[in-house]
Write a structure and sequence with these properties.
The complex is a heterotrimer. In chain A, the strands form 3 sheets. In chain A, strands 5, 6, 8, 9, 11, 12, 14, 15, 17, 18, 20, 22 and 24 form a 13-stranded mixed beta sheet that branches. In chain A, strands 4-3-7-10-13-16-19-21-23-25 form a 10-stranded mixed beta sheet. A two-stranded antiparallel ribbon of chain A has the order 1-2. Helices cover 24% and strands 35% of the residues of chain A. Chain A is of the alpha/beta class. By secondary structure, chain B is α/β, with parallel strands linked by helices. Chain B is 34% helix and 30% strand. Chain B contains 8 helices and 12 strands. In chain B, strands 6-9-10-3-11-12 form a 6-stranded mixed beta sheet, with helices on both faces. A 4-stranded antiparallel beta sheet of chain B has the order 2-1-4-5. In chain B, strands 7-8 form a two-stranded antiparallel sheet. The longest helix of chain B has 15 residues. By secondary structure, chain C is an alpha/beta fold. Chain C contains 5 helices and 17 strands. The chains are: A alpha/beta, B alpha/beta, C alpha/beta. The interface between A and C is large, with 41 and 45 residues. Strand 24 of chain A pairs antiparallel with strand 16 of chain C, so a sheet runs across the interface.
């Protein structure tokens, strides 16, 4: 039989690409100097230690070089990036008070309907500033804090000072240093000891301004025995200039606590998504990452878990879908720093239309960490022969009382499977879509229903127009 | 006279330039049960795949008609929509999709109508109970991690749920334990009526103990060399396929 | 001139530098030219084989353009300091039953070896070539080498390389190979000794329906370091590859394993598989694995698996109830782990030597 090649059309992004014009009130001039950083800090009326942190980070930024591995970042022109864009509104707690054009953008994306339906609290960030934050009364009564990071720096100053950029210090890499210098927006969550936040908290990030950067900072502390599910969603319209997203997420999961952090990222395809995420997981605590990467031009994202206390666990479940013009370099890092810790990593990637999907991971077992278990499974699906899919896992093991397994598979949709489904009446596209949905099921099953539905829709959209 | 469902006329077919079917004729009417027997490599499974339009096989000569319509060039899903069904010898595993969702999607595309989840669930449970199948199969992924016997049961369940006009059962009875044979034969009996037909491809006759076959064909070297009633089965048992070769003129 | 080498054994695609897995460096420096006085050829040259010494090498290297995964500086070093070189040509259509054996001994009078070997298997020929490196005494011996193998249409070439150097010795070895249509290149590598052992093997499947295998065993003990870099690239259609590696690490030994299956766009219908199993005998080892799967073609099947675990204690217990001492039981388990690879070595006496070498090494474990 003649082997057939698949051509897959690009997805219709009309919904995500809607942009409004000129809603911002203030912009700093292009490029990055000490003055700009000081200006950002002054605008936010920050304590002096924060200004110092910003200036130190700026120094680090200038001293660090670009990464020598991973996707090429040559398109990124740091001197011409507007680091800080402030929308034309102050923070609101009542959705009705949010200005119409910003509100309509979020409503088109289903925020805050999501809140009305299933969430304990919602935060919405538009460009660099959080424009909307709301948390249910009941949560407040239990002592749960959910607020924007600017407010937290003032209201919870000792706690922020103790934890801010301690897991992810500026020296980690160039983009974290940049983040430290110009960070703006993001959320702070504190869940007190023993409190079980039964319904998820959600943050939604939206970029509107062209050629800007978004550098939100998320800090979450889940105290002893407490539980939280946090969801973040990201999107941006498409402009011809390159946008940069270099956020940071620092998570502290204390003894016996559990935290699930879910992300569905659908940035527009001009976005450089160079985000950093790390969780410190204490004794018998549990950290779960659920990560779906669909959008962006380039993504480098590797949520990390440091299993710092005995019996700590982490699970990473990730899916990425790389289409034309996309280079999605994703994966995870796990450090087993204590005995009896365990990790499960499950990754799926799909590439089509010249897209590049890379799975990159590092599992480290430190000498003191005995009785460690780790299971890695990654599968890649190639939908055509013009795309790429690379798997680059590394395991560094320094103790012998370990049980470490790694499995990876790569290939395309089997023609026999398509035939089987066609004998049951599905046409070729439906058959492929069903197989792809099944392929990412380990991830969709971890998502709240509305996100699972959105993800399946994204897959169907991506596959529509494919011809056999 | 009952309606003609399948007509295979002077079929020649090959895979990767190897000729496997060499002039095969076959007619199946409503209400009939046909059995095709033959030694390994005679082309039995190939025939099933060709009737369903497997892209690896090339029909080089002859035609296949279903309800009078030429389907030789039709796509596999079109054939399924017309009422053809194949129970695979080695069904594919589709992980991530539950049996129930799979069959409901299939029912929807075959009928062209929306299938209500709740009503379908009730119907499915009923059929599974009748088959004495564990209800847990409904939430398991399509054939994923199923044993050989479980896969065959899953195929029979799909046949009952999708209710085709012609069901082709490719070695559905091979390699089954007693329990699975029971499920499979009771499923087939449940399915069979005067408006549909069954084509059983096998090299083993156990399944025919509980099922009356109207016609038995012997397929050898890409051709049907003999057709008869159930008596032919006994003859094969006694003398083996080798005795048929003289008939095929070799 | 100081011969210090950094950035050797580079991984085909870089990852985080803090993992220190992207490349390695030679501890200390390599000696400059000295004579190698031994004759490695044992036995007579069988019919159908032509063996040429030294000079013709460069012609073959230039003609077949195999690309060893060695830094330019290191290649220059080897070219300038080469003190032993052979071209082995297997004549078209010939099947050579007896392995061709090159045994390189290093000793006081020949403490430095820089060997280059080119093996050409002409169309439809079959042969096995064994190369062994072994020391006489512990004398700070240095070996670096490059073995190139080229299998023309339909040829089958088996290359077995066994390194049994002593604790003070250094070993940097490169294998580069290519297979034309329907040809097979099978390489067995036993990395058993040396203070620092840096080895790589790179095979290009150039022709349609060609096949390549790398089977390897490695053994780390004391404070020895092993650095491994294997890659098979699928260039032709319907090509098949397998990398299969088994290792044991004891004491404070360190190992970095990089194994890459690379499906280049156009290599449709190809299959590649990679497995690495490491057994750890001590809590103080360093065991790094990077099994890479690179893919630019959809019509392929690729899989890799790696596992690391402690010596199976119930197995150990079982063997001890049968009267074996703990050390003996460990040796049996190790042997069992190595056997799938060792059985590919058809030369019985060499296999015996390997077993006794391993036993000797593990006598105090």
């Amino acid at each position: 039989m003649e082997k057939r090649k698949t051509f897959v059309k690009d997805v219709d992004r009309t919904l995500y690409d809607m942009k409004d014009t000129g809603a911002d009130s203030y912009r700093v001039s292009k490029g990055l100097t000490k003055d700009i950083v000081a200006e950002i800090s002054a605008m936010k009326d920050e304590p002096s230690w924060m200004l110092e942190l910003r200036l130190d980070s700026l120094k680090t930024y200038h001293s660090l070089s670009m990464p020598e591995w991973g996707p090429s970042l040559h398109e990124l022109d740091m001197d011409n990036l507007i680091t800080y864009v402030r929308p034309n509104t102050s923070l609101k707690e009542n959705w009705d008070e949010v200005p119409g054009d910003i509100k309509s953008t979020f409503e088109r994306l289903g925020i805050p309907q999501a809140e009305r339906e299933a969430l304990a609290g919602v935060g919405a960030q538009y460009d660099s500033e959080v424009v909307y934050h709301h948390i249910k009364e009941e949560m407040i009564r239990q002592g749960v804090v959910y607020t924007d990071m600017e407010a937290a720096v003032k209201e919870y100053e000792p706690m922020i000072r103790e934890y801010f950029m301690k897991l992810l210090p500026a020296k980690t890499h160039k983009f974290l240093a940049l983040h430290g210098a110009v960070w703006s927006g993001g959320s702070f969550v504190y869940v007190p000891q023993g409190v079980d936040v039964k319904i998820p908290l959600q943050s939604y990030f939206r970029f509107n301004a062209p050629g800007a950067g978004q550098f939100e900072h998320t800090l979450i502390i889940v105290d002893k025995g407490a539980k939280l599910h946090f969801i973040e969603g990201c999107s941006a319209p498409k402009y011809n200039t390159v946008n940069l997203h270099a956020g940071a997420v620092e998570l502290y999961v204390r003894e016996g606590a559990s935290l699930r952090y879910s992300t569905i990222e659908n940035w527009s395809k001009n976005m450089m998504n160079l985000n950093s995420k790390m969780a410190l997981v204490e004794k018998n605590a549990n950290m779960e990452w659920v990560s779906g990467t669909f959008g962006s031009h380039i993504t480098m994202l590797y949520p990390a878990s440091v299993l710092n206390g005995e019996g700590a666990k982490t699970e990473f479940t990730g899916v990425s879908f790389a289409a034309e013009g996309q280079n999605l370099d994703t994966g995870t890092k796990v450090v087993h720093a204590a005995p009896h810790t365990s990790s499960i990593i499950n990754s799926r990637s799909i590439s089509k239309g010249g897209g590049v999907a890379v799975y990159r991971s590092a599992v480290s077992v430190l000498p003191q960490a005995h009785h460690v278990k780790s299971a890695v499974s990654c599968e890649s699906l190639m939908l055509d022969s013009v795309s790429r899919s690379d798997t680059l896992p590394v395991m560094d093991i320094r103790n012998d009382e370990v049980d470490i397994g790694h499995e990876a598979k790569i290939g395309r949709i089997s023609e026999e499977a398509i035939f089987y489904l066609m004998t049951r009446g599905l046409d070729e596209i439906e058959a492929k879509a069903m197989i792809v949905r099944g392929f990412v099921e380990p991830i969709t099953k971890e998502l709240p229903l509305e996100y699972a539905v959105e993800m399946n829709n994204l897959i169907s959209m991506e596959l529509e127009g494919s011809i056999g | 006279m009952s309606k003609l469902l399948l007509k295979v006329q002077n079929l020649h077919a090959s895979v990767e330039d190897k000729v496997i079917i060499k002039g095969l004729d076959l007619q199946i009417n409503e209400g009939e049960v046909h059995v095709i027997m033959g030694p390994n490599g005679a082309g039995k499974s190939t025939l099933a795949n060709i009737i369903m339009g497997h892209p690896n096989y090339k029909v080089t000569e002859g035609s296949i008609y279903f309800e009078g319509e030429d389907i030789t060039e039709a796509r596999t899903d079109e054939r399924a929509k017309k009422g053809l069904f194949l129970s695979f010898q080695a069904p594919e595993e589709i992980s991530g999709i539950t049996m129930e969702n799979f069959m409901r999607s299939s029912r929807a595309v075959l009928s062209g109508e929306e299938v209500k989840a709740y009503a379908f669930h009730k119907e499915l449970m009923l059929i599974m109970d009748e088959l004495q199948m564990d209800r847990n199969y409904a939430v398991r992924h399509v054939n994923a991690g199923f044993s050989g016997g479980e896969k065959k049961k899953s195929e029979i369940l799909q046949m009952l749920v999708l209710n085709p006009k012609l069901a082709i059962l490719d070695e559905t009875d091979s390699g089954l334990d007693v329990d699975a044979v029971k499920t499979v034969s009771s499923g087939i009996n449940q399915f069979k009526n005067s408006r549909n037909a069954i084509l059983i491809i096998t090299h083993n006759t156990k399944i025919l103990d509980k099922l009356h076959a109207d016609f038995v064909h012997v397929l050898m070297d890409g051709k049907i060399v003999k057709t008869g009633g159930t008596a032919l089965i006994d003859q094969i048992y006694e003398t083996g396929f080798a005795s048929m070769e003289s008939i095929s003129g070799k | 001139m100081k011969n210090v080498f950094k950035g050797i054994n580079e991984i085909p695609v870089k990852t985080w530098s803090w993992l220190s897995v992207n490349d390695t460096e030679l501890k200390g420096e390599f000696p400059s030219w000295a004579a190698y006085k031994e004759n490695p050829l044992t036995g007579s040259v069988p019919e159908g084989v032509e063996i040429l010494v030294m000079e013709p090498l460069q012609t073959y290297f230039e003609k077949y353009k195999l690309e060893p995964r060695a830094k330019k500086a290191f290649q220059t070093y080897m070219q300038e300091n080469r003190n032993s070189g052979y071209v082995i040509r297997i004549t078209k259509g010939q099947t050579i039953e007896t392995p061709i054996f090159l045994s390189f001994k290093l000793d006081e009078s020949s403490p430095v070896l820089v060997d280059n070997v080119f093996i050409l298997a002409e169309e439809n020929s079959r042969a096995t070539v064994i190369i062994r490196y072994s020391p006489a005494g512990s004398l700070d011996l240095s070996h670096s080498g490059l073995t190139q193998v080229y299998a023309q249409n339909g040829a089958e070439l088996n290359l077995i390389k066994v390194q049994m150097l002593a604790d003070q010795d250094r070993h940097v070895d490169h294998v580069a190979g290519a297979a034309e249509a329907k040809a097979k290149v099978k390489v067995v590598l036993a990395e058993l000794g040396a203070k620092q052992s840096i080895t790589n093997c790179n095979i290009d499947l150039r022709g349609e329906n060609s096949e390549a295998r790398i089977d390897s065993i490695y053994l780390g003990d004391k404070e020895r370091m092993l650095d491994i870099n294997y890659r098979i690239a699928h260039l032709g259609k319907n090509t098949v590859s397998e990398i299969h590696s088994r290792g044991v690490l004891a004491d404070r030994s360190e190992k970095v394993f990089r194994g890459t299956i690379d499906f280049v766009s156009g290599a449709s219908g190809s299959r590649g598989k990679e497995e690495e199993y490491a057994v750890l005998f001590s809590p103080f080892v360093k065991n790094v694995s990077a099994p890479l799967l690179l893919c630019g073609e959809d019509d392929v099947e690729g899989a890799h698996a790696a596992s690391t675990g402690k010596l199976d204690e119930s197995k150990l217990f079982y063997l001890m109830t049968r009267g074996f001492s703990e050390t003996d039981a460990k040796k049996i388990i190790l042997e069992a782990s190595f056997n799938p690879v060792l059985q590919k070595i058809t030369d019985e006496s060499l296999k015996e030597q390997i077993f006794s070498y391993i036993k000797e090494r593990l006598s105090y474990v």
